User: Fold Pyridoxal phosphate-dependent decarboxylase family protein from Methylobacillus methanolivorans.
Amino acid sequence: MTSPELNRLFDTEQFRASGHALIDALAEQLALELQGNASLIQWQSPLDAEQAWEQEMPEHPVLEPHQLSAWLQQEILPRQLAMHHPHSMAHQAAPPLPLAALADLVASFSNQAMAVYETGPVATLIERQLIRWLSSMIGWTHGTGVLTSGGSQANLTALLAARQTIDPHIWDKGITTVRGPLRILTSALSHYSISRAAGMMGLGTEAVIAVEADAKGRMSIEALRQAHQACIKRDEHVMAVVATAGCTATGSIDPLQAIGEYCRTQGLWLHIDAAHGASALLSTHHGSKLEGIALADSVTWDAHKLLYMPATLSAVLFRDKASSYRAFAQDASYLFHQEDDREIQDFNISARTLECTKRMMGLQLLVAFKLYGRQGLARLIEHVFLLAEQFASLVSQTAGFELLMPPETNIICFRYLGKQALAQGALNRLQANIRQSLLHQGLFHLSQVSIDENTWLRCTLMNPYTQAVHQAELLQHIQQIGDELLSS
Assistant:
């Protein structure tokens, strides 16, 4: 019989009461954030914040279960970046759907460590169903794949599979089995995870060759041809071409059809990093922007971006089933039993992913599809794309501002020029200082990006509650802060 002390750790009634109080507190916080009545961020420098936060590890309880909700409201929620606030515009992390977050609680509670089917049976079935749905939206009849903790892991997994197509002995004997260096061709605006993956795989970051992008931020197909031919002349093996559908910097989508056709004719593995843009496939209005995505050998798709899931929830998808097994070729007798038939092995997801212990991450997305359907999620995507178009129009029409390019998704890059001509360095510093001032005052959360040595302010309009009045307010604050900085 367990002791009273142990029973306290798993007390059902405490769980019930604390859960009800916590949901009430979060619902109140959600309402405040959506209305813009909560603090966006209470800025402190990291060092000051850590000094104020640092605590001794409690040897004994310092908090009673009935105090948990109040403690979270007083100590945790005020220190967060308010993701549901309409002034939160910096990054591609979504303000998660509230009911999806509830499903995430169920996933945490059930704790299905889905290394193999028997350790997470329903989690495995959910994941396989979601992979089939996502693959079908790409246009694949027999596509497969796995869910991953983030797009960086998905990109790495896809590139590991691509590497094995060069020489199946690489897994055991290393890249020294290949005569000549391996190369990855990708856009100059591709995500840093591509270069990071090359470093992790032992190829070296210099194995990633940046292909020129055009004025709209899209990979130049002619530059791709030239880069490929140059590799051939140098006796270098192009392991993969990585196209981007919704690049992080500008939201631009590479010409997937042309890139795909070129890769097919040249026998090159095509990976499409569609972490941000793939969700547009749900929309009948915007899905055509990804025409040609079905030509890919592998695709990365982040649900914690435009499918509005809690982070992190991504997928790496493969057109060919056999390709999904190439990334990892390890034996683990305590998990993968040789006597299991192939049918059972297909359900053992850890054979195809970096993670062994993998949480039930698909439940929240399944719940979203069940509650809102493809059309409901598509309307959300279409709404924020429209917000981006409206904001880009406002920027273009407002004196003193410059738009980098019309948005193709929901990411807008722009800058404040001021009332006088500035040298490039001074103009770049102005953007960085404006962004910092907005953040430190808790007014708006923007990001910034450097393209061709020019610094641009960057908005990612993820929140459907960010309306025209907030967009106008942002430009007013930028102009006011910018003029004050220039005058000082």
Observations:
- The chain has 15 helices and eleven strands.
- Residues 413 and 458 are 5 Å apart (CA to CA).
- The longest helix spans residues 363-397.
